[in-house]
Design brief:
243 residues; alpha+beta; six-stranded antiparallel beta sheet
Amino acid sequence: MMNNLLLGICFIIAASILGSSFEAGKKYDNINKMTIQVKGFASKDIVSDLGTWSGNFNVTNPDLKQAFSDIQIIKSKVLTFFNNMGVETNKIQFSAINTETLYEQVKADYGYVPSNTVIGYKLNQMISIELADVKKIEEISKLSTNLIEQGINFDSHSPQYFYTKIEELKLEMLANSATDAKNRAEKLADNTDAEVGNLISASQGVFQITSKNSQEISSYGMYDTYSIDKTISAVITAEFEVK
């Protein structure tokens, strides 16, 4: 019993020396077998391989037919603008046109309310682009508002960036974090006469996909879509037998 007690104390001291980057502990099962529990960590920098961007433009006119004609002209200008940026037409998607009827506003006791008098129509259409060239998506998002110089009411939305092979990478990250857990357990055991044995149990934590060099984490996991350069990290909690 005294040897077991001394061995347990050694593990606690070793854990404090190795720092707070992992957790270690010991416990005895119902047959008096000692185990050690550690956290394994793995991370990898990745570069997004798919980017998406969207924007929208609109026209307002008292006549619906003229408003439709106006937005068709603007659509042509928008298409030409992005073609001149090197984006192929088949990579550009236009949504259906959304039509909003505008009513005259009349004063009421509690402010202004719409009347039954139609004063015009507002037509809105969205454009979206999806490319493997994420740098081109970044350029599009920055330069698209130059359409305003052409007299176009244009709004640019924030681009989003994705890594399409993330599921394959998750398997690699789990394997690396499991290896790290085993290494941490062995470092703890090196400070004693103990030897790390079989893996008894392991549980997977959430994946964190953040912008590169970010320190953000979430208990539910994160998936950053606003950065081209990202870091994926994985954590597992593993319990090993100690001989």
